[in-house]
Amino acid sequence: SSELTQDPAVSVALGQTVRTTCQGDSLRNYYASWYQQKPGQAPVLVFYGKNNRPSGIPDRFSGSSSGNTASLTVTGAQAEDEADYYCNSRDSSGNDVFGTGTKVTVL
Amino acid sequence: QLQLQESGPGLVKPSETLSLTCTVSGGSISSSSHFWGWIRQPPGKGLEWIGSLFYSGSTYYNSSLKSRVTISVDTSKNQFSLKLTSVTAADTAVYYCARRYASSHYDYWGQGTLVTVSP
To answer: How far away is chain B from the Cα of A42, in angstroms, using its nearest Cα?
Structure first.
């Protein structure tokens, strides 16, 4: 079972702001990275580290971290942001682990 | 532009060994800054990390799969491979290969390949 817990689903009105969280004890020591996955496609990196957004990712995607919780925020959500989002970090052994995933619906 | 491509059988019988290869193009697998990993996703479910490898041969495995998994590298072919033994229907999934930058993030992914375990 995953040591990184995410809300199963969240919804947001078009143009509004949505935040999805990732909880786990290892996040006190490691940053999270965040991946967007649309149906039938491979995951795409959208945010990582303390404050890093890959080239080509809109600046409406941002991340933060506090204690055992990492957050991904989409400010001004667009229809194309509807997807599954996964966090990734380390488990208690220092190995990779993915979060349980959040389905984001844009209304 | 770096590209990763998974290849291997799409159908494996129960109790047999699943074997996949990831071919890296547009960059060298012998990079001191990167790890190379396998991640899978059962139909309708989330992502599961299987394991990672450094070009020198150092490997790291998911503890839940460790007894059945081997990841290896062939630097001469710019490829790395996954072997998963004694498969069952629970191993049916889309298998992705990906590049991880240091201990940070997966920046490049393959398109994924569906492997079905069925008689």
So the answer is: 6
